Amino acid sequence: MITISLILIGLAAVLTVFRLIKGPSLFDRLVASDTLSVIGMAFLVVLAEIVQTASYMDVALVYGIVGFLGTVTIARFFMRVSK
Amino acid sequence: MTIIGEILMLIGGIFLFLGSLGLVRMPDVYNRLQTGTKASTLGAMSVGLSAIFLLPGAAGKAVLLVIFIVLANPIASNTIGRSAYLSGIRLSEKSVSDAWGAQEGSKGEMVEGEAAEASGSGSAPAPSDKKGA
Q: pTM here?
């Protein structure tokens, strides 16, 4: 079950990277980047369960916080209000 | 206990994969935002909940992770969608309704509309006042 879940997470990362490369506008790439950060966080949780080490949960939490802050900052930075 | 955790992890992996599949298949920024954030939120929540059963030493951290995912992902998706709309990204041709664009005449009046809606004195008179003015 863990192997199937890892394969699915890897396929999800591949599809997200495809959208990250191909995306027509900046916001498509931003959505793909946000999704990729969530997928990376889920992968770190799965890794913590495989190797039975609780420290990877801290890594996953910090990775999620950094990804969230980066996404929000880039989205706010590129918001242009057109009157 | 272990079988519950593995089933939760499998559900999480399936939802993460389906969310990324929607991210490739959908035609629009907003539809991609829908699939790429909601399905991924459910998948990451499920994977985080599986850590409670499969790694009991880190159950507190797993609960903290799930709470963080629930709080942070909708905020990120809301910010991306709002900034994409304000930057003038068009909806796709297949879209059937644009509630924000139909409600507001121009995009600059958004703050006023939010203030009128937040005052809560009935939603019916507020748009008529704005259309009259």
A: 0.79
